[in-house]
């Protein structure tokens, strides 16, 4: 092929990759289902005694490294947690592992592998080097979705795939590739929790790492096809959005910084995700690490993030009572005893990639990667949170 023609095709593919869909599908109701689910007091919330526990998710992890946890409540008292594990990040032996709790998170089953690169390769017929970053959600039909990234090399070559379970994680469908752009379908990743529209569609926070590091919100129908997509950020400021609805139309996106000054980044929407404000840097330092946000009630937002300038050493919780404008209340959950400790003496110790979940009993659950050797599970209630943050 003529070199000039090849260049034109390549450029067209790149432009297609970053061309946003128009969020104007006829008949769409851009309102999140949170409007129909006001926060109410629960039996656990009503107990004034603080509740706080912290321990590894399972007794033994079957791989050398584990990372990027996610979790979902499939029914009251029944939780699933997923993460990726292997000999190292992006290794060919990486798989996504799943554990189940039937007692509200107090105990968990042994980890089992549910998908790997071979399954993705066999389903698509395409070469897959590795997978990672699993994200769990439950749709209104009761099906459990697990979305993850597959790659042919580095993360900049990744795309999104998903599997679905109709029996609460017992069995799973073959992997399907999620086409986030027409034509060129690389450099799309997931990390943040999906959100749900009240008409049944799923809002999926995604991000890109090729050429321009940016965040987007994709809208999926109930069959797993992207029907709309809009940019949350412009330029190269931030990735890995955690979208937190405040009411039916308003939401904030909390994001990992991609460029200096390395602060937690924030953007807002007032129209259900059709448009987003300019991205601003908060006053919260962050060493280019994943953050997680969760609405507690009203405009109160709970966030987990790495409060450190240099590396992922400290993991903190912060609370904002004004929809992310200010974060006056903070508490430390975990920290590195020494930056250079086992399991990798040549790498800094990290506590990172938090994931927040609030279950129907009112309990909060925080999952995170502990030195990439374990997935830590922290459980607490509102009474503990109020006391720890001085609320």
Number of helices: 4
Classify the oligomer: single chain
- State the share of residues found in helices, binned by percent: under 10%
Low-confidence stretches: 1-18, 20-27, 35-41
Mean pLDDT score, rounded?
87
Distance between the termini: 66 Å
Topology as a string of helices (H) and strands (E): HHEEEEEHEEEEEEEEEEEEEEEEEEEEH
The major sheet is characterized as: 5 strands, antiparallel
Coarse structural class: mainly beta
User: What general outline do the C-alpha atoms trace?
Assistant: globular
Strand content: 35-45%
Computed over alpha carbons, the radius of gyration is 20 Å
Number of strands: 25
Task: Looking at this protein, list some descriptive labels.
391 residues, mainly beta, five-stranded antiparallel β-sheet, 9% helix, globular, disordered N terminus
């Amino acid at each position: 092929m003529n070199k000039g023609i090849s260049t034109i095709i390549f450029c067209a593919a790149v432009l297609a990759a970053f061309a946003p869909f128009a969020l104007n599908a006829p008949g769409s109701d851009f309102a999140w289902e949170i409007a129909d689910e006001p926060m109410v007091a629960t039996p656990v919330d009503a107990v004034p005694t603080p509740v706080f526990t912290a321990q590894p998710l399972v007794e033994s992890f079957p791989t050398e490294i584990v990372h990027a946890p996610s979790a979902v409540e499939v029914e009251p008292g029944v939780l699933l947690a997923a993460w990726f594990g292997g000999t190292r990040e992006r290794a060919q032996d990486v798989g996504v592992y799943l554990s189940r709790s039937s007692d509200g998170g107090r105990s968990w089953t042994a980890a089992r592998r549910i998908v790997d690169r071979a399954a993705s390769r066999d389903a698509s017929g395409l070469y897959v080097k590795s997978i990672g970053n699993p994200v769990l959600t439950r749709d209104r039909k009761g099906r459990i979705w697990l979305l993850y990234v597959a790659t042919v090399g580095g993360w900049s070559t990744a795309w999104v795939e998903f599997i679905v379970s109709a029996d609460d994680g017992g069995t799973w469908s073959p992997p399907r590739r999620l086409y986030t752009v027409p034509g060129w379908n690389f450099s799309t990743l997931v990390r943040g929790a999906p959100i749900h529209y009240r008409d049944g569609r799923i809002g999926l926070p995604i991000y890109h790492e090729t050429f321009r590091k940016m965040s987007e919100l994709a809208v999926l129908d109930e069959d797993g096809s992207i029907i709309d997509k809009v940019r949350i950020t412009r330029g190269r400021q931030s990735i890995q959005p955690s979208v937190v609805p405040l009411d039916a139309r308003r939401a904030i996106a909390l994001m990992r910084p991609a460029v200096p000054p390395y602060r937690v980044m924030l953007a807002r929407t007032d129209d259900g995700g059709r448009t987003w404000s300019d991205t601003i840097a908060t006053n919260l330092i962050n060493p280019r690490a994943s953050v997680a946000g969760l609405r507690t009630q009203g405009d109160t937002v709970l966030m987990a993030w790495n409060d450190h300038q240099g590396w992922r050493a400290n993991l903190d919780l912060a609370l904002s009572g004004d929809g992310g404008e200010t974060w006056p209340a903070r508490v430390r959950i975990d920290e590195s005893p020494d930056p250079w400790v086992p399991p990798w003496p040549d790498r800094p110790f990290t506590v990172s990639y938090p994931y927040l979940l609030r279950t129907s009993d009112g309990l909060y659950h925080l999952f995170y990667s502990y030195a990439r050797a374990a997935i830590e599970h922290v459980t607490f209630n509102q009474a503990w949170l109020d006391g720890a943050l001085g609320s």
